[in-house]
Amino acid sequence: MLSYIFASKYLLNMEARRDVFQAIADPTRRAIIGMIVRQPVSVNAIADHFDVSRQAISLHLKILAECGLLHITQQGRQRFCEVKPEPLQEVHEWVEQYRKLWAGRLNALKKFVEQEDIFPDQKIVSHKRTTKKVKS
Amino acid sequence: MLSYIFASKYLLNMEARRDVFQAIADPTRRAIIGMIVRQPVSVNAIADHFDVSRQAISLHLKILAECGLLHITQQGRQRFCEVKPEPLQEVHEWVEQYRKLWAGRLNALKKFVEQEDIFPDQKIVSHKRTTKKVKS
DNA sequence: TATTTGCGCAAGCAAATGCTTTCGTATATA
DNA sequence: TATATACGAAAGCATTTGCTTGCGCAAATA
């Protein structure tokens, strides 16, 4: 049922012509999302918060819109941008795969630290022979 | 306590010279992580799974290692790559900010759909009046 | 010891990215 | 109606990205 809604939403008003991972890779775009998450904000208002030109921001907005993270509503001569966080679901799911992995490791570490008060060697156990710690 | 451990781990063996968001932006790199998550895999073994050259994969591995997502252990003439998912914590936290947002919206939508059996208009209601708020 | 294997490094290149400046156009305001 | 404002489109440019090929070197193997 939920997946049905998701699929429909994707087909409905999200074009997802662009990878959401790639969209959020840029720190400026992440900052934009953080900035407008509370309420829709006009393009100029967004651009005022950044050092780059309005056109540069406009392009970032276009990219965000293209992957469905942003919805733009025209109102007179202004365009208001609103966050649509649903595409982040994909990122969430991908990260979540590895979450238990690092959570488990952290717990083990935590226990160790609390017991021994030093940091354990993070050695790989499956091939403990020549652990020649690669360095650049 | 936990944050202390995290900070220490970062300082300990993660150089984080590269943005993790940027590292996982590339689909090949995400595939690499998915591939080696179970056990350490040698560089050639990884490269065999992809269409691109070994050198291209090698570069991807370097990028992943540079942001701490990968740990490389030399063993004779082989290098085994192991996933270190901890840097994904940052991604998780960033996405999680918006999770309730979309979860709430989804629930509302779900309710609406089950009730009315059509899709609601996703119009913005909060700025029907030139909301020129954010100052420069 | 001679050869093969695993792999990094460097150069070269095409495409993508991120930015700027200039322009055009539609909407608001005087 | 004349001007100012909000904004996208397009062009130009530097940098980054992702890939390839060619090379060298150390470890394994014959």
Question: How would you explain this protein's 3D organization?
Answer:
The structure is a homodimer of 136-residue chains. Chain A has 136 residues and is mainly alpha-helical. Chain A has a domain at 2-86: Orthogonal Bundle (Arc Repressor Mutant, subunit A). In chain A, 54% of the residues lie in helices and 10% in strands. The first copy, chain A, is built from six helices and three strands. In chain A, strand 2 (70-75) and strand 3 form a beta hairpin. Chain A is elongated and about 55 Å long. The model of chain A is unreliable at 1-15 and 116-136 (pLDDT under 50). Chains A and B meet through helix 1, helix 3, strand 1, helix 4 and strand 2 of A and helix 1, helix 3, strand 2, strand 3 and helix 6 of B. The first copy, chain A, binds a DNA duplex (30 and 30 nucleotides) through helix 5.
The chain pair with the largest interface is: A-B, 66 and 63 residues
Distance, first to last CA of chain A: 50 Å
Indicate the overall shape of chain A.
elongated
In CATH terms, the superfamily of the domain at 2-86 in chain A is Winged helix-like DNA-binding domain superfamily/Winged helix DNA-binding domain
- Gyration radius over CA of chain A: 22 Å
CATH class type of the domain at 2-86 in chain A = Mainly Alpha
